[in-house]
Amino acid sequence: MRKASESSLADMRVELPWLLDELVRDGMICEDDARACRASRTDKVSDKLHPVQILARLYVDSLGSKGSSLSTKALTSWLAEKAGQPEFPIDPLKIDIPAITAVMSYAFAQRHQLLAIEVGPDYVVVGSTQPFLKAWEPDLKQTLKGKEIRRVVLNVDDYARYSVEFYNLARSVSGAGKHDQSGKGGGANFEQLLELGKLSSIEANDQHVVSIVDWLLQYAFEQRASDIHLEPRRDSGKVRFRIDGILHDVNEFPANVMAAVSSRIKILGRMNVAEKRRPQDGR
Fold it and tell me: What string of DSSP letters covers 231-251?
């Protein structure tokens, strides 16, 4: 594969014509298929979908694999190698959602098609579906206060799902924990919004709590978890899933958010919300 030079692709957005030309040059697809893709009517979806998604939906035959079409996974691997950046498959069980959503705003992430993946002591791993774009880096570096930016390439379908899901969950938790009269402005970060000293009691039927519980149940189903463990502690509560006999950490909530989540689940199971000592069976 011919690796793209940084000078020729500096701050370039991946578009469908470029994608088709490069795939033909690298022997991934034939010229006839590329010509057919160019002739197909993709104008209506080109603004909503990434070029990789458009191409995957056209079911173009892969010259490297007989009888199979190019998938978003195969195209992501190719794009990562082209850009000289590691490919990063998102595993939600290993993502610290409060930490990664505090790195950048949702608007900034969507505008540049970014998602923070990991926050280390002196670095931040940032995933992107546009690996050649660099215009956003100076702005993010200013907010990271000297931390190194390590770039990776994300699967476009994974990004489309998790970039929304992670921020929605973070917004629900922060909304559930925010005191109505705390005086916090819109620029407060995730940790500030959840500062325990300024929280009030939370209703189990609060829309934010409902969203958190809905997400937990849906996520547990998708991960084929046999058990959901809610482990309340003095300052914060931990959520863990049992998958194939092994407990996996999923998230941490402030103590009062955890209490509201537990109450919501009791309501759904028609259990006594006030009972906190004896075990109960839900319906």
Answer: E--SSEEEEEEEETTEEEEEE
